[in-house]
Write a structure and sequence with these properties.
mainly beta, Porin, 18-stranded antiparallel barrel, 3 helices, 43% strand, globular
């Protein structure tokens, strides 16, 4: 009898186990391991990483940060180190219309104990200082002593559920921490952050780019309608001083010329200045971005593309500004790719040219200013076009135009506004498994960086970026990129010599 009861228990357990597994139609485990070797030269000469900001100033909430203290890779004129990114992802199809995705990662510099020194760690898309004034928030860039640094900590990169045919067939809803990328990522593409437990000396290589959001997609082929809401940063659940992102995107694919077009509206509700008691209680840096993007092939060997966006809203530049300034800004990205030689030559060459413009304002880090503000807000751009200049004002700052802790945009020469950029690019494929590419980037500013001298207007610099990728197998690839930024007249027009900054990165990636 006892034996029979044991058999019954085993049978019941087996029955419920089979039933439980039957609820999951398919489970897939995947991931990747990437290792980078980084060498930098003259970063500490051209770009200052050691000047400590004023800890008592409250906030610089623009997603830009300088790193102070003895951070590996940036404290000397030339430095080299290794970093790795390890990711594991689990995808599960529960039913034909319900699926989930969870992705965990660890990103770290290899055994760098000094990374625990005083500095800024990117935890959110915003920036705050943490010092004797008592400011600092868990979702912001915190300044402090990172003795608790855990290079083997694990972060949550993705965690979302997808509901297909929700309510009715054309609707798909995705809820949770997910990637958002629209068009070329010019406006919304990355919510870049670096965990406080995994401080990186090269934060531009962070793999944490997802948004906590809800996305709804209506697919009426050839029309696609997408709406999103995302919580970017929140000071306190009961406080009305956080950062939210709302958006709507309408896309259409044409039958001819491989044409596509989309129009969008994104609204960044940015009222975090209230968390730091900046100016009046109704102050905000709210931004509405409205734009159009499209591309088509007029003939088979050419692709033309373009995107234009305008911004409207408010601007508060620093704690002493008396009132909100109205914001009117614009940005443009146009270009062409040519494949004329691709089928004619064995190495399949491709060439292209691109022009990018971000509107700017006069001297946005020195004075309160008045009237309309014309500086472009970078929103959550995921698109990057250079190895070095792209990240000035986002993660690094130059010695001539140092970190301004009391300003919303804390770098006068930042790369995401007040700039014109011309890009010449090309690629070759000498073998099926090897691809070579290169960019020549030229930069100008429109308004002076410093109205006190009126000299800082003109040519910002030239950057040359070269890259090579070798697909060793279907799962293993090697990559080598190198960039050199030669500072222009806005850095050396005071007879000071600005050194060329160099960045060389070799990497290996294994996917499974």
């Amino acid at each position: 009898m006892k034996f029979l009861r044991v058999l019954c228990v085993i049978a019941l357990v087996a029955f419920f186990t089979v039933s439980a597994y039957a609820e999951t139609q398919n489970v897939k485990v995947s991931g990747d391991l990437g290792v980078r070797g980084i060498f930098r030269d003259n970063y500490a000469t051209f770009q200052s990483f050691t000047a400590a900001p004023n800890e008592n100033l409250a906030v610089t909430p623009a997603g830009v940060v300088g790193i102070s203290g003895n951070m590996a890779g940036v404290s000397r004129s030339n430095s080299s180190w290794f970093m790795s990114t390890t990711e594991v992802q689990i995808d599960a199809d529960l039913t034909d219309n319900v699926s989930t995705c969870i992705r965990l990662l660890n990103q770290r510099d290899w055994n760098v104990a000094t990374t625990a020194a005083t500095g800024y760690a990117a935890v959110g898309n915003q920036v705050s200082t943490f010092g004797s004034g008592g400011y600092g928030h868990a979702a912001s860039y915190l300044q402090g002593n990172f003795d608790s640094y855990d290079e083997f900590g694990v972060d949550l990169e993705l965690a979302y559920v997808t509901l297909k045919n929700f309510l009715y067939s054309p609707l798909t809803v995705t809820v949770g921490r997910q990637n958002l990328w629209f068009g070329q990522g010019f406006i919304v593409g990355a919510n870049s952050r670096v965990s406080i437990n995994q401080a990186l000396s090269a934060p531009e290589y962070t793999a944490l780019n997802a948004f906590d959001s809800v996305k709804a997609v209506l697919d009426f082929d050839p029309w696609t309608l997408t709406a999103i809401y995302s919580k970017i940063w929140q000071n306190d659940i009961q406080a009305d001083d956080g950062v939210d992102l709302w958006g709507a995107n309408v896309g259409y694919k044409f039958d001819a010329y491989k044409g596509e077009a989309e129009g969008y509206w994104f609204y960044k509700r940015d009222e975090q200045v209230r968390a730091f008691n900046w100016v009046e209680s109704n102050a905000s840096n709210d931004v509405s971005t409205i734009g159009l993007r499209g591309s088509f092939d007029p003939i088979d060997i050419f692709t033309l593309y373009g995107e234009f966006a305008g911004q409207f809203g408010n601007y508060v530049g620093n704690p002493t500004q008396a009132n909100n300034r109205s914001r009117v800004a614009g940005a443009l990205d146009v270009g062409a790719d040519c494949r004329y030689f691709t089928d004619k030559w064995a190495w399949k060459p491709k060439v292209g040219v691109e022009f990018i413009w971000y509107s700017g304002d006069v001297d946005n880090t020195q004075t309160n200013g008045s009237g309309q503000y014309h500086g472009w807000d970078p929103m959550f751009r995921g698109k990057t076009d250079s190895l070095i200049r792209e990240f000035i004002g986002r993660y690094y700052y130059s010695a001539k135009y140092p970190f301004q802790a009391a300003n919303y945009y804390n770098s006068a020469d930042n790369s995401f506004q007040n700039q014109e950029q011309l890009i010449f690019k090309g690629s070759l494929q000498p073998m099926d498994s090897i691809k070579l590419n290169g960019n020549l980037n030229m930069f100008w500013n429109q308004e002076s960086y410093d109205t006190r001298t009126m000299k800082d207007r003109g040519y910002v610099g030239t950057e040359v970026d070269l890259g090579a990728t070798w697909d060793y197998t279907e799962d293993v690839s090697f990559n080598l990129v190198a960039g050199w930024f030669v500072p222009g007249t806005v850095y050396n027009n005071d007879d000071a010599t600005a050194a060329t900054a160099a960045d060389v990165v070799g990497s290996m990636k294994v996917s499974f």
